Amino acid sequence: MPPRIVFLDRETLPVPVRAVSVPHEWVHYPQTSAQDVVARLAGAQVAITNKVPLNAATMGALPELKLIAVAATGYNQVDLTAARAQGVTVCNIRDYAIAGVAEHTLMLMLALKRQLPAYRNAVAAGEWQRAPGFCVFGAPMHDLAGATLVLVGSGTLAKATARLAQAFGMQIVYAERKGASQVRDGYLAFDEALAHADVLSLHCPLTEQTRNSIGARELALLKPGCVLINTARGGLVDEPALLAALQQGQLGGAGLDVLIEEPPRNGNPLLEVNLPNLIITPHVAWASVETMSVLAGQLIDNIEAFLRGEPRNVVCGV
Ligand SMILES: NC(=O)c1ccc[n+]([C@@H]2O[C@H](COP(=O)([O-])OP(=O)(O)OC[C@H]3O[C@@H](n4cnc5c(N)ncnc54)[C@H](O)[C@@H]3O)[C@@H](O)[C@H]2O)c1
Ligand SMILES: O=C(O)[C@H](O)CO
């Protein structure tokens, strides 16, 4: 019997995906809700998920499942402990969003440091037309050149962001893991790094160690006017604490590509406030056509490699 491959949320990858090159049965669904996962994966050897959660109860009901091919770098939607216990291999996509996420991160930094939303709003409101002089002075604008960028995480996307930021003349500091007993060469202790930041950008996975790692205490360590960028996962940041820091003027701004709940069907206070120094994009840092196409190719490479007995990009194996 050829392996059955089921893509649970095909709609989340709106680019062509080439066919797997060995005999197989392919089924895809635009989206899959939690209550439909088990029925749709029944008899499947390979499950593809971008953001559909796969938990212990689901895997326990799917004895034939052998591979979860995550169509993303972040795999926080998959219960790895359960996968290990069930003998299910999990693989992910790596190094695909070097241009996409780094450019998006720099875009958010530039827009916030140069007050793009505030000046755009001023022009739209007719302030330039009424101005006494040739330009309009409003919110104070700052250059990236000479500013310090602190990175949490030092993997592919942190380094790609660092390369672009260096081209803008920024100083780069890598933060050691929060709570680490040793500080590696080339890093500053977490709290010390935060205190140096003109821009703090998050590029680590969401795990039980990193969840809520930027809360009220950490936001208070930042210099007044510091800008926070999160293109990693919403759960890294305590959202009520972030909102309070923005409303109290403690932060210079925030650029978020991710929220704790996605899509935010139950609302989110960050989406309700209309602050010019808060820019929220709907988890699209990776979504340039070029970047998504690299992901699509690697997804099939991963599945083909697993089917010929040479699993790659393994996050958790058997
Ligand atoms: N918004 C988007 O479109 C988008 C796209 C791709 C990836 N992402 C997110 O970005 C994250 C980073 O991607 P990447 O390709 O750089 O991954 P990566 O695996 O190359 O790097 C992750 C880095 O995080 C570090 N890390 C792990 N645990 C940590 C901890 N407790 N504290 C601090 N650092 C820790 C690792 O050591 C590593 O340096 C992904 O996990 C994913 O959640 C978002
Ligand atoms: O982790 C990733 O690769 C992004 O969130 C896109 O799914």
UniProtKB/TrEMBL annotation:
The keyword Glycoprotein does not apply. Residues 29-315 form the D-isomer specific 2-hydroxyacid dehydrogenase catalytic domain. PROSITE patterns: D_2_HYDROXYACID_DH_3 (PS00671). Keywords: NAD, Oxidoreductase. The keyword Coiled coil does not apply. Residues 106-285 form the D-isomer specific 2-hydroxyacid dehydrogenase NAD-binding domain. GO terms for molecular function: hydroxypyruvate reductase (NADH) activity; NAD binding. Transmembrane segments: none annotated. Its EC number is 1.1.1.29. Belongs to the D-isomer specific 2-hydroxyacid dehydrogenase family. This is Glycerate dehydrogenase. It comes from Silvimonas terrae.
